[in-house]
Every structure is written in structure tokens, then in C-alpha cells.
Amino acid sequence: MIIELHAIQTFAPSNLNRDDTGNPKEALFGGVRRARISSQSAKRAMRVSDVFKDAAAVPTGTRTKKLVKEIADRLEPVGIERAWAEEQLLEIAKSLYAKMDSRRVQETSVLLFISEEEKDAIANFLQGARDSDTEPNATSFVKDMVKQLTNRTSAPDIALFGRMLAEKPALNIDAACQVAHAISTHEVNTAEFDYFTAVDDLTPEEDSGAGMLGLVPFNSATYYRCARIDWEQLVQNLGGDAGLARQTVNAFMQAFALVVPTGMQNSFINKHQPDFLLAAARPNNDGQSLANAFETPVKNGRDSGYAEPSIRALGKYWDQVEGAFRLAQPTLAVLNPRGYALHSDELSGASVANLGEWIGVMTAALGEG
Q: Is residue 209 part of a domain?
């Protein structure tokens, strides 16, 4: 079973995701330049959001190099000497996850993606050794942890997005979720610039001029976004816990619909809800991205912007491609809050009234197990 999510979403002038020059990210597609939001940016925004965390209802993962410091900070208030804890933690981190950074010996050489369950286990192991006044057997502890963590995690975001540790491949977890780079459905030639000045409030009135000058790049676009969840892989990653996997799908679908990257949000309010949402539960793992609906860039109409023609292009492409390549009938849910003509009888027939119904159709399709 694959849960496939598609969105058409319009953003007013903003700079959600910058490149190394500070300009909005972009890409070439269909022979023209498009606005782009990277998948890395979208995934981080979703997994750290309150929307995702609240809906998941269990502790999520932490991506960090500072595991030693975090657990030492946790142990110090319960009376465990910091120097001793750090010595033990350095050995455990090196044996279990990755070698330490040669420049910052308290940090791992790579970012770790670890669950609260893992951090609790390490802290409890060291506290237990201290309470019993015994020398901790780190070698035995690490072996037990590897057995417990092979191909499973308790953190929904690690289960979705996976984990790779080149030095410790036994702890790798295959991602259950794919997220595409969002691209504009139409051509976006170049960023615009806001030329701004700031005044020094303490400058004497007789002195003129700005205290600072600057340029802020931005663009605006209607984007196509896509993500896919492999249900069986998600259940496996969560140790067979289908209930938690269903909660994770619910949380991810909420975040997919409601969360966007927060780049320059104080300069540009970038909180815009999707113009269109499509979800498909496919029982035999077929299906695809619908990005090629926009390989020919959408043109805005005389009386419309880009959202309506983008949705029209997606509906037309859906009928064409599904008619040619579909292997089995998917379960569909379409949220079309502005009532645009979908130009697809199948998509029109799958309309739901609100976000809760949109998610509910998909979670119901997952069944009981």
C-alpha cells in the first residue's frame, strides 16, 4: 500500500527556501526556469512542527551531534558526576553510532538521528551502573542496543525519513516516505528585490540618511508538491506497531497540508493554505509523481492567476496517465476548498468537505493491520 499525496499551493511574495546567495531556490524544468522549495527544507519544517508532533502524540526524533552533552545534562541533576558521565558517553557514542569529531571531541563526527527511546536507554544504563556502584559494561550494552534497534525505531519521523550511519550500517533504517522538491507549475524568470532602509532612532534630526541599506530577494509562485508513504515499510520501521503507523500517517498528512518552510517569515507572512489536495491509497504500490502535468508551463488566464489553470492541468493529466498505466483502483480523496473545476470526473467524484475527511479516507483505507 502506497499513500500518495499531491498539492497545488500558491504563495504570495516570499522567500521560503534560500540558496547560498540568499535568493529563492530555483530549477530548470520543461525548458524554463521554475521556483523551487527543496525536499530537505520541507521535511524539516514538517517534522519539527507542532502540527506533526501533536498529531503523532509520541516523542519524535532528534538530529544532533551533541548526544554526549544532552545526556550528561540529563544525568547531572540526579547526582551523577559530569566528568564520569561524559567519559562513558563518549565510549558509547563512538561504539554505537559514529566516531567523534577530531576538532570537537564532545561531538560526533556526523549528525545522529536518534529517538527519545534510545536516549532514555543510554541514560538509564549509566544511572543504573552508578546507583549499583558497578563499572558499566559498555560493550554488552552496545550489543544489546544494536539488536533492539536493527530495522526499527519508536520515533515517527525517523520511521518516515529514515536514518543512515555509514560507520554503523546495522542501525540504518530505510525511509518509508519520499518527498519531492516542490516546483512552480509555471515559469518564474528571476527573483525580485525589496530595497529597504533602516533609520537610526538616535540620529539627530538635522542629520539625514539611513542607518542601513539592504536588498531582500523574493518571488511568488504556484507550486506543485508531492510525497509518498510506503505503508508496509512504515509499519516495519515502527516495529510492527500498526496503530502508531496509522497515527504517523495522520500526523504526516496534517503537516503536509498545513506546514511550510519558515524562511523569512517575519518579512513575508508565508502562511497560505493549499489550493488543492489529492490523496490516493494504492493497494499494489503503483502510481507516480504528477509533476509532468506541468512539463509544459502553465499560462495564467485573462481572469485568473495560476492556481486554477494548474488544477485544470493536473486533472487532465491524471485522467490521461491513470487511464494508461493504472494497475488497480486506488482509494481517492480530493479537497478542493475553492471549488475549482477539476476537469476529471473521477477526481470530482472523490471530493471531501474538509481536511479531517481528507485524512480519514486514507487512514480508513489502511484497514486494521
A: no
Identify whether residues 242 and 194 lie together within a single domain.
yes
Q: Are residues 43 and 68 in the same domain?
A: no
Distance of alpha carbon 238 from alpha carbon 244, whole angstroms: 7
CA distances from 362 to 1, 54, 279 (A): 11, 19, 7
Compute the distance between CA of residue 369 and CA of residue 367 in angstroms, rounded to an integer: 6
Rounded distance between C-alpha atoms, residue 125 and residue 137, angstroms = 9
Task: Reduce the DSSP state of residue 200 to 3 states and report it.
Answer: coil
Query: Among 270, 266, 284, which Cα is nearest to 14's?
Result: 270
Q: Cα–Cα distance between 52 and 247 in angstroms, integer?
A: 10
How many other β-carbons are positioned within 10 Å of the β-carbon of residue 50?
Answer: 9
pLDDT reported for residue 218? 85
The total number of structural domains in the chain stands at 2
Residue stretches of the chain with pLDDT short of 70 = 368-369
Longest dimension (CA), the chain: 79
215: Cβ contacts below 8 Å, ≥ 6 apart? 193, 194, 195, 196
Does the pTM surpass 0.85? The reply is yes
Q: What is the pLDDT of residue 199?
A: 84
**Phi, psi (degrees; rounded to nearest 5) at 75:** -85, -30
- Residue 354 in 3-state DSSP? coil
Q: State whether residue 203 is helix, strand or coil.
A: coil
For 151-203, the pLDDT digits (tens) are: 999 999 999 999 999 999 999 999 999 999 999 999 998 788 888 888 888 88
- Contact 80/127 with Cβ under 8 angstroms? yes
Domain identity same for 232 and 322: yes
pLDDT score for 369: 45
Q: Are residues 304 and 348 in the same domain?
A: yes
Cα-based angle 245, 283, 39 (whole degrees, multiple of 5): 60
Question: Do residues 204 and 1 touch, judged by C-beta distance below 8 A?
Answer: no
Which residue range(s) make up the domain with 352?
2-59+176-199+217-365
Question: What is the model's pLDDT at position 215?
Answer: 83
Q: Give the cell for residue 224.
A: 506543485
Q: Give the H or E element holding residue 219.
A: strand 212-230
Give residue 239's identity as a one-letter amino acid code: G
